[in-house]
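Continuing the batch. This is chain 6 of the set; chains 1 through 5 are on the previous pages. Same settings as before, nothing changed between runs. Recording input and output for traceability.
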Amino acid sequence: MIDSDFNIADYCAEADECELILSFCQLVDTMIKDIQHLEAECVRTRYQLSKHLEEPEDLYYRSNILSGLRTPYYDSLAYQMYMAIYYDGGDPLSFREWTSAINRLAKGFEDDRF
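Output for chain 6:
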């Protein structure tokens, strides 16, 4: 996960080791997994709720099932560092595996990975 060429001094001149940064990134990674789980549960619940609505509200509700789930984090310097260290600059909330899974959940197909 951590790039072997990573040098904490490149990011923080006062740091003499990366233990704190590594711990921070591990915490953020755990929090991202929690966010994914909570978003998946929200989508599952919204889908189940839509089954109890009448037309056309049910179709409208399902078409907006993914709206308003999260705030983008990519503008945060801390999140950028986390992505650089853990995912070579990629955003785990934008990876195909995640977006495909959440879109399938929005259509009622179960995915127990999240």
